[in-house]
Amino acid sequence: MKLKISTREWKETYQAACRGDHHWMEELRWEGFPFKEENPNYPLLVGAVKHGQPCLAEDLIKKGVNVNQRCPRGSSALHWAIYNNDSQSVDFLLNAGANPLDPDPDDGMTPLMYAALQGDLNLVKRLVKKGAGATQRDKKGRSAYLYCGQGECMEAARIRKAKENFIKKYSIYGDQDEVREHLKEIRKNPNFKKICTLLENLQEDEWRKRNGAKDNKRKQVSR
Fold this sequence. Notes:
- By secondary structure, the chain is mostly helical.
- The chain has helices spanning 7-19, 22-30, 44-50, 54-62, 77-83, 87-95, 111-118, 121-129, 144-147, 156-170, 176-186, 191-222.
- The protein is built from 12 helices and no strands.
- Helix 1 runs parallel beside helix 3.
- The longest helix is centred in the C-terminal third of the chain and has 32 residues, at 191-222.
- The termini are far apart.
- The model is unreliable at 150-157 (pLDDT under 50).
């Protein structure tokens, strides 16, 4: 018999996920809680990752929770893991099938863009290895390379605007000045230049492959 879960029960379970309550989750498993179902207002996996509970998040995936579920604002668990610089969560989410190409529906930012903005070279490499695309653009036409902050001078104003949008978006979870200071600190990261070189080379490879595929198609048509 299928259990009918009330809104209150979903909320309590979400709060348990946020605080990393394994005992609560195990009790629910024995009671037959439908972990494979989703309540968009209380995404269990996103809550666990967002609040720094990687062990419980991994356990939720084993229980059948959708690895690509989103929070009400549209961000996925992978987006939050990167924003929190949580490499443990990033690894198991990617290995469990999280989509590295998945854009945030709010602004079109991809996981690779978040990692580039954070200046985390290891996260960028992990995402690229799993198939993240460097030529993807957000809703304003910006690539991960531009989010890295080392693009052409003519793009500087657009990059600043991107940073301000990022600050506004996440100030709901903390003081706006704190988010701004956090960004200021990560911009000092020496890895930014390495990330930009990696992304620039990746962009060129993707464009070359794309143009090569078009040329082959034209040759086949002409025959």
